[in-house]
Amino acid sequence: ITGDETWVYGYDVETKVQSSQWVGKFSPRPKKARQVRSNVKVMLTVFFDNLGVIHHEFLPAGQTVNRWYYLEVLKRLREKVRRKRPEVWKKNSWFLHHDNAPAHTSLLIRDFCVKNHMTVLPHPPYSPDLAPADFFLFPKLKYPLKGQRFSTIDEIKENSLTELRAIPETAFQDCFQQWKRRWQKCINQEGEYFEGDKSQ
């Protein structure tokens, strides 16, 4: 089970592909105003496995992601695993993966995981290519939202959850297969940095 946090914006700039326009051979290039991200934003935390999303939550206003907040997140995650994945919960056959953010790796969190018999998979530093949330979930979630404008936090939450729920189970399965290939490539290169999975 892997997870991370990300900001979701009231307005996020479209990609070059999304914002491209067809013009005739002799037509002047259209002028485009410079776009910037909205200041209206909310942080979303998501944990998922190869079957789909297990737990998600939005950061409350005024709260920061520190070790105390993340401790409560992990408690809620454990309850969701117990309810949504009863077989792996009963056998304690699941592993936790997160990156090396300070809130994730504090002594408080490490002690909590040890006391609750939670095996944490190591994550190489500065390796977004080995974090499924970074190379799969968050890009897939945010791409359809780019270019749309949401004026309130509630609108951002509603639309981001709509996109999150629209991701099919097969996409999560493909993600975990890709993750395995990326790990194998990292092992083959003895931990040296590499970029992406060219087979995708």
TrEMBL record:
Molecular functions (GO terms): nucleic acid binding
Pfam families the record matches: Transposase_1
PANTHER family in the record: MARINER MOS1 TRANSPOSASE-LIKE PROTEIN
Protein name: Mariner Mos1 transposase
Source species: Sipha flava
Lineage: Eukaryota, Metazoa, Ecdysozoa, Arthropoda, Hexapoda
